[in-house]
Design a protein that fits this description.
Distance between the termini: 24 Å
Order of helices and strands: EEEEEEHEHEHEHHEHEH
Shape: globular
Strand content: 15-25%
Radius of gyration: 17 Å
Oligomer: single chain
Structural class: alpha/beta
Number of helices: 7
Length: about 280
């Protein structure tokens, strides 16, 4: 079930225009581009399995597209098997043509998603204090932004509902604007050609970690030539420095963009994620 993210489609920070969204599948990957009308696709577990935990899923795509299947819908179904409700976020791409302030549009959508799920917790059989977020690649940057920038809510929040996720799972995430480890394409799409040092520091999320940052699970591959594993490492180090519960798994091989299945190992990181969630009490009924 796909729902519009904003009531009556009143999208903040939006310039009215035609819907130019496109969906293309190639190499078994569904890529959605030119997103200007964000949505949430709702995946609810069987009532018998449901444990009250929910996750919002942010697929990757360099802030240029959303890789909606292998980093979105497929992941949602896996969480449903654990009894976890899942919500795939089709978030806006930063675009001067569509938004007066392009850099905040994805974060607005992530915050709106968290608020929406929390607001409808009873309807969807969810514990409002067990709502997490998972992101892949640039979606990992968006998820980590939601988990470090929640004190300033950028959407209408009349009910004063918290936009803070209760936990995060960051999978080969873009984290840092540090030139030695950054994924330049994601930052260019998010912040434009010539961002200021202040903007780069603001969206270098390892610099935004505090003791209020949610517990975090991270996965990366050592041979990731798309997004350096140092992104996960610096974020993990910042979490530990601030005494935030954290778990980091780095595989020897796997490259970038493997979704749920790193074909270089028999191990499935989703099993580790499940164990982590279980050990923290998020899979208890």
């Amino acid at each position: 079930m796909e729902i519009t993210l904003y009531p009556d489609n009143k999208i903040p920070n939006s310039i009215p225009g035609p819907d130019e969204e496109k969906s293309v599948t190639s190499d078994n990957i569904l890529r959605i581009s030119n997103i200007s009308r964000p949505t949430l696709t709702v995946f609810l577990p069987d009532a018998v399995k449901a444990n009250g935990t929910a996750v919002i899923i942010c697929p990757g795509g360099g802030y240029g597209i959303v890789a909606a299947s292998h980093e979105g819908y497929d992941v949602a179904k896996k969480f449903n098997e654990m009894g976890v409700a899942a919500f795939v976020l089709k978030y806006r791409m930063p675009n001067k043509k569509n938004q007066p302030a392009p850099s905040i549009a994805p974060l607005q959508d992530a915050q709106q998603a968290i608020i929406t799920v929390r607001k409808n917790a009873a309807k969807w059989n969810i514990n409002p204090q067990r709502i997490g977020i998972i992101g892949f690649s640039a979606g990992g940057h968006l998820a980590s932004t939601a988990g470090t920038h929640f004190s300033k809510v950028l959407v209408e929040d009349a009910g004063n509902i918290s936009a803070r996720p209760d936990f995060m799972l960051l999978i080969y995430p873009v984290i840092s604007a540090d030139i030695t480890i950054t994924h330049a394409g994601s930052y260019k799409n998010l912040l434009g050609e010539n961002p200021s040092k202040e903007e780069l520091d603001l969206y270098s999320n390892e610099k935004q970690v505090t003791d209020k940052t949610p517990p975090t699970f991270l996965v990366h591959a050592s041979d990731d030539n798309g997004v350096s594993p140092n992104n996960s490492i610096v974020f993990y180090q910042a979490l530990i420095k601030n005494k935030v519960p954290a778990e980091l798994h780095i595989y020897e091989r796997g490259g970038h963009g493997f979704g749920m299945y790193n074909k270089t190992t028999k191990e499935e990181w989703m099993d580790r994620a499940k164990n982590w969630m279980e050990s923290n009490g998020w899979l208890k009924k």
